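seq/struct pair 1
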Amino acid sequence: MCNLNKDIFINKLSSTGHSLIEIVIVLTIIGLIIAISLPSFSKTTGSYNLDNSARLLASDIRSIQQTAIKNESSNFNMLFSTAYDRYYLRNGITPYTTVNLPSSVRLVSVNGFVTPNNNKMGLAANGNPYNRFGGHISLQDRKTGKFLYVIVDSLGRVRVSETSP
C-alpha cells in the first residue's frame, strides 16, 4: 500500500511541469508572430505620423490666418525649412512658434506661394495668402513613401489631400 501511494505521488510530480523543449517551441512561435507583425505596425505608425503632421500643419495655417485677421496685420507668415523638416509661425521675421515634424515625416516642398524664396507663405490682413495666390505643402512618409498635401487656395481655404494639386 505504501508503494502505491508513492507511485501516485511521483506520477503527479512528473506530469505537472513542462519540458524545456516545449517551452523553447512556444517561445519560438511567439517570436515568429512578433517578427511578422512588427513591420506592419511600423507602417501604421508612419502613416499615423504623416496624417497627424498634415492635420497639425493645416490647423496651424488656420490659426495664423485668424491671428492675422484679429490683429489686422499682414506681418504674419509661415517659413518652411525643407532641410530640417520644420516650419515657423512668425510675426514679421520673429518666430513665435517652431514645429518640428516627426522623424518619419519629410517636408518635401512648398509650391505656388508667391514669395522671393518660395518657402514662405505670407498672409494679408484678411487672412488670405499674399497677392491672392494659393499653393501647397507636400509631406511624405519616409517608410511607405506616401504623400499628403496641405492645400491653401487663393481665398485662404485650407484642406488636406492625398492627391497632388
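seq/struct pair 2
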Amino acid sequence: MKVGGQEVGISGLPDVIEKGLQHIDDSDDKQKEVLLAEFKARNYVPDSVQGEYMRAVWAEYKKFRQHRREEREESYMGIPREEIPWFPKVDPSKCSGCTSCVEFCAQGVFFFAEGKSHVVRPLNCIVSRSSCRSFCPEQAISFPSAAELRESLKKFREKYSVRE
C-alpha cells in the first residue's frame, strides 16, 4: 500500500478491514473510527502522518466494502430476497452465549446482547447457506429444511414467472 507516495507495510490489514466490515451498516464516520482504532492497535502511527495512513487504509477498505455490499443478496434467482423465508433462528434456551455465530457470520446476521446471540439482519443471510449452524457448539441455530426452501422457491418462481 502506498502512503505519501511510498510503499509501506501494514500489519494486520486484512483483520483491520474485516473489523471495519462488521460496521458496514454504520455511518462512514463510525467505520473510519473503527478502522483507525484497529489500525493503531496493530501498528505504530505517528500523529504527523496519521491522516495519510487513514486515507490509504480508507481507500483500500472502500474496495472491500463495495465488494461486500455487492455480495449481499437483493434477489435470489430473480425472486425478491425479502420474500424468501430463509434465515437462521436462535433457540435462546440452547444458546450459551459463546458468540461463535457472531464471529463467523460475515453478513452481520447475528448480534450479541444480554448474554445471547440474536438474529438482527435476517435478510443478509445468503439463501441456502447454513454454515453458521455447524459453528454453534450448542446446536442453538436452526434453518428451514431443504424441502421447505425448495417448496418456497417453487411457489415464488411461479408468482414471479421465473424459470429454473
